[in-house]
Amino acid sequence: MILLSLLLIPLIGGIVAWYSERFNPDYPRWVALASLILCWVPVLPYFSAFTLEQMPQWLVDEPMRWIPRLNITAHLAMDGLSFLLVILTLAMGLVALSSAWTEIKKRTGFFYLNLLWTLAGVMGVFLAMDLFLFFVFWEVMLVPMYLLIAIWGYENRQYAAFKFFMFTQAGGLLMLLSLAGLVILHYQQTHILSFDYTVLVQNPITGDLAYWIAVGFTVAFIVKLPALPFHSWLPDAHTQAPTAASVILAAVLLKTGGYGLIRFVLPLFPDAAKAIAPLMMTIAGVGVVYGAMMAFVQKDLKRLIAYSSVSHMGFVLLGCFAMNIYALQGAVMQMLAHGISTSALFVLVGMIQYRFKTRDLDKLGGLWQQVPRLSAIGLFFGVASLGMPGLGNFVAEFLVLVGSFEKYPWYTVVAASGLILGAIYSLIIIYKTFFGPRGDSVQTSEVKGAAEVTDTSNREATTLLVMVVILVYMGVHPQPFMDMVQSNLLQTIAKGLL
Amino acid sequence: MISTSFLVYLIAVLLLTMTMLLVSHLLNPKTGKRVNKLPYESGIVPSGTTDIRWNVNYFLVAISFVIFDLEAVFLYIWSIVVMEAGWQGFIITSFFIFALLIGLFYEVRQGAFDWGKKQGGIE
Amino acid sequence: MSLHYLPAIVLIITVLLSLTSLSLKRHHGIAYLICGGGLLLTMLSLFMQIGKTGTTSELFVFDAITPFLSLILLIVVSMIWVQLYQWLEALDERKEEYYLLLLLATLGSLIMVASNHFTSFFLGLELMSLSFVGLVAYSGREFKGQEAGVKYLILSAVASALMLMGMAILYLQYGTLSFNDLSMQGASGTLPSWVTVTGIIFILGGMFFKLSLVPCHLWVADLFEGAPLATSALLATLSKLAAFVVLWRIFSLGEWHTHAVIVDIVAAVAIASMLVGNFLGLLQNNLLRLLAYSSIAHFGYLLIILLLAASPTTAFLTSTFSTEAVVFYLVAYLFTLVGVFSVLMQMPQIKTQQDLTGLFWHKPTLAITLALLMLSLAGIPLTIGFMGKFYLVMTAVNHQMWWLLSALVIGSVIGLFYYLRVIMMMIKAPDGESDFSGLTMTTNGQLLNYLIIFLVIGFGTFPAAFSQLIETLSRG
After folding, report:
1. Distance from CA of residue C331 to its chain's centroid?
2. CB contact under 8 A, C23 and B99
3. At what angle do helices A157-190 and A233-240 cross, to 10 degrees?
4. Where are the domains of chain C?
5. Strand, helix or coil at B50?
6. Pseudo-torsion of CA A161, A167, A173, A179, nearest 10°?
7. Which residue of A78, C299, C416, C460 is most buried, as measured by CB atoms within 10 A?
8. DSSP secondary-structure letter at C290?
9. Going by C-beta distance under 8 Å and a sequence separation of 6 or more, which residues neighbour residue C345?
């Protein structure tokens, strides 16, 4: 019941938050905070797993009956990979809450309901070990996210929310077909009807159809990642979403795509995964370069970061299909590090927008003099984003590149150039925002009265500093994170290597 | 399948009717006269307009007539097999007549048969 | 007379009773109660039959599924009936006859659902269609309603004529009108096979009219818009369910999938319905027209079921799985649709999507109900509509019907566009123009909304019991 309670706490908390708005519009955020903190209680005991010599297959395993007619179970389970991502989700949930704390003033109850339900949905995705259940969470988490963007977003929110929903739903429908195909093919080959991951993974399906089924799953996942041809929803969704939604989107929602690839595509379709690997590596390599190049022509700060996400997630894709333990560990590290660094950047943009009412790079500049603390932290995360050694991002990207060089040297060379391009856009952010001459918006806000613009509050500073600490820790001592997932990942690629 | 004689018959019929139409078309005077456009009323010159509004009650009565006509048809069939159908048939037929009776009652109360009144039925 | 005829007899007696009470004294309340009582008793008598062993007579079939489907039909009718009183009170017409026609249409559809013979099928069909003509043209002063009534009269007459022609041809071939004997090559089967195929096409044509599938779909939007709201609801649920059940029965009993031409035609119609229905709905502003187009698409999805027998199977699960899929999908779709209509009946002044702007912030329960129903129509998980679609996809994948499936996927994505637009309108910030002051929530409506949410989300999230029930019924 541990994992179930992990899902139920935010669900119930959301309803309570919504209801509490009747009494006072400030209550919902406190309810949200309380339920998020409460969520940590069930997972805290599993931090001891960091010290284990040998990771067990599952930290927790909770099969439950659901729809016996089709042998669908509500099978929740947590292993090292899920654990890390759940922790990331919970942590970023707190960050999102912190950034929404004062920003959201309208319809607070419904906002926190959606926020908490999105988190519950994402955790469901990370914990579901039944493919049907996984699919349900995968689709359902989109609805509150859609509402978050469509109601509390910026100027063009309806369009952006719409695009986000359509893209991911189209991918989802493809996954539904593939899911049905997978189960039926598995039934044909083994005469076991099951949607359970642990059953399906024992006898991977083979044949031509298996190839197409794998493609269906892969497309559904890389839409969410997002990889190159399907990425266009991301800049819009990120730009229009409120800060908290951007944080969730960047930090955890994108990771569901990478998680899906590692958890399902690689072990369930080892042959097919090998067959599509060159294509995926191409997409990844092009995506890294393309995302970076798109990033440094953007004028909108949020759009810039969104494109940098496309570039960074290209590394995840690269790592996934390199079929190599180092690359896979790198992909997982990249998911964690990117989750933290990018969401921190979004938080910073949110703060800038809140203070200067603009995200336009041309109108910003010279913030250092006015908001030094904010700018200093901004500098840190900008540097993190370009992959500075000693931070989590560097470890991740380095591992991915090392892992994939062995088999795919040319793709790796292309992708490695992404690191240099990454430096360019990161420096653009830093230069145009924090240094240089003062921009129009910065000046006007000064004319109105300097008292209006304040530096980071304690709440904001604490949030960001904690993220700084985690990122540095991941950079200097990444071993525990890697040990956590090593045995899982070895199993994942074991079949593919044969 | 369709027999040869049927085909011959069909072709003959078609030929005959076509010929009649064609010949009458060829022989008729081409000059248009006023009376040509008028409907043929057995030699009597038509008068008045055909846009007559019928009282809606007429249709009600007509449809009631059809209903009871059909009832008679069904009862006729029953009368042939009245002994074989037995009591069960009798009950069913009685129910049938009873249902129609209720319908008739409803119609009467609606004022379907109140000729000449502006507003019929119960209010 | 076995117990199986009891529901129909109860309905007939209710009709006669309400006719008598109408002739004696006109009173809206009495008519409402008689109708409701009759429906309740019919439901009870149907409920008694569920799980009992079935029989098949010459004219009717009472297997395990039939009473269940009839019960679903009656639940749907009752859900509409609940709101009828309020809705009719607002109508400036004589109110009592509506119940009469409603009961007759229900009776007709019950006969159709249980029919096992072309005569019983045709009688049921005509009883239903003729009652519907009255229901469609009920408000005599509205021009659009009258137009819709005339359209429906003429088109259903054409459809009936086509079907009669088809039945005549099949009779010529098989020498019987019973569905059971359709598959057997009768002694009189001297006609070439194209004649049989022509007969089948005639029948299918008539059925496609009733189901408003693509080449015969043009009437449906005008009718939904023009007809009184409750009638549209009945038309979308009652008549379509009955027609589909009969079509399904004839198709499988007659083994029509053995004719390659018929399979091609049905596949083409299915694909065309999915795509055209969804495309027409795309930019539709009027909510009722939108529902009409969405119903075209949904019955397009359902047509996949008819073709299952034509393609190779992998003996997956049990042979009854496709039956379960039909029943599940039908039930899911009907509950969702009747939910949408009852929400619309609670807000009669809302006609277009613009009218919905900001509804969520004024009447949350209403808006949430409608939003969930839209998600259910779109097939988003945790709604009953998704479970229906899942069953459908499972069967179709099992029979490897990739073409139809890809049309289904494309259609669903397009469909998502307009279902989502409705939700988007509701959550938009109210712009001051929208006026919901006229919306009064009745306890009746409120309770109904909770019931709908319960059905759509409850059965969508925990479908185990329901799927088990359907499985037992399909086996039985």
Report:
1. 9
2. no
3. 130
4. 257-476
5. coil
6. -110
7. C299
8. H
9. C80, C83, C87, C229, C230, C233
Query: Are chains A and B in touch, 3+ Cβ pairs below 8 Å?
Result: no
Say if the Cβ atoms of C19 and B122 lie within 8 Å.
Answer: no
DSSP bridge pairs for A130: A196
Query: Closest partner residue to C16 among B99, B109, B110, by Cβ?
Result: B99
Residue C440: CB atoms within 10 Å? 10
Nearest CA in chain C to B106: C23
- What residues of C are in contact with residue B109 (Cβ under 8 Å)? 22-24
Q: How far is CA A273 from the centre of its chain?
A: 22
Helix (H), strand (E), coil (C) string for chain A: CHHHHHHHHHHHHHHHHHHHCCCCCCHHHHHHHHHHHHHHHHHHHHHHHHHCCCCCCCCEEECCEEEHHHCEECCEEECHHHHHHHHHHHHHHHHHHHHHCCCCCCCHHHHHHHHHHHHHHHHHHHHECEHHHHHHHHHHCHHHHHHHHHHHCCCCHHHHHHHHHHHHHHHHHHHHHHHHHHHHHHHHHHCCCCCEHHHHCCCCCCCHHHHHHHHHHHHHHHHHCCCHHHCCHHHHHHHHCCHHHHHHHHHHHHHHHHHHHHHHHHHHCHHHHHHHHHHHHHHHHHHHHHHHHHHCCCCEHHHHHHHHHHHHHHHHHHHHHCCCHHHHHHHHHHHHHHHHHHHHHHHHHHHHHHHHCCCECCCCCCHHHHCHHHHHHHHHHHHHHCCCCCCHHHHHHHHHHHHHHCCCHHHHHHHHHHHHHHHHHHHHHHHHHHCCCCCHHHHHHHHCCHHHCCCCCHHHHHHHHHHHHHHHHHHHCCHHHHHHHHHHHHHHHHHHHC
Tell me which residues of chain A, numbers 41 to 100, contact chain C at a CB-CB cutoff of 8 Å: 65-70
Give C281 to chain A, closest Cα distance, Å: 16
A161 reaches C (C-beta below 8 A)? yes
**ipTM, interface predicted TM-score of the complex:** 0.89
Q: Is B121 on the interface with C (CB under 8 A)?
A: no
Q: pLDDT tens per residue, chain A (498 residues)?
A: 888 888 999 999 999 999 998 888 888 889 999 999 999 988 888 888 777 777 777 888 888 888 888 888 888 998 888 999 999 999 999 999 988 888 888 888 899 999 999 999 999 999 999 999 999 999 888 899 999 998 888 888 888 998 999 898 889 999 999 999 999 888 888 888 888 888 888 888 888 888 999 999 999 999 988 888 888 899 899 888 998 999 999 888 999 999 999 989 888 888 888 888 889 999 998 999 999 988 888 888 889 999 999 999 999 999 888 888 888 899 999 999 999 999 999 999 888 888 888 888 888 877 887 888 888 888 898 888 888 888 888 889 889 998 888 888 888 888 888 888 888 888 888 888 888 777 777 666 555 544 466 777 888 888 889 999 999 998 888 888 888 888 878 877 776 554
Residue contact C468–A68, C-beta within 8 A? yes
Q: How far apart (Å, rounded) are the C-alpha atoms in residues A291 and C304? A: 42
Looking at chain C, which subunits does it touch, using at least 3 CB pairs closer than 8 Å as the criterion? A, B
Domains defined along chain B, listed by start: 56-110 (1.20.58.1610)
Both tokens assigned to C238? 């009652």
**Which of C16, C20, C26 lies at the smallest CB-CB distance from B122?**
C26
Residues ≥6 apart with Cβ < 8 Å to A210: A185, A204, A269, A271, A272
Query: Considering only CB atoms, which chain C residues are within 8 Å of B111?
Result: none
**Is any Cβ of chain C less than 8 angstroms from the Cβ of B102?**
yes
**d(C-alpha C373, C-alpha C344), whole Å:** 12
Q: Which of C354, C390, C406, C473 is the best residue to mutate to test the A interface, defined by the most A CB atoms within 10 Å of its own CB?
A: C390
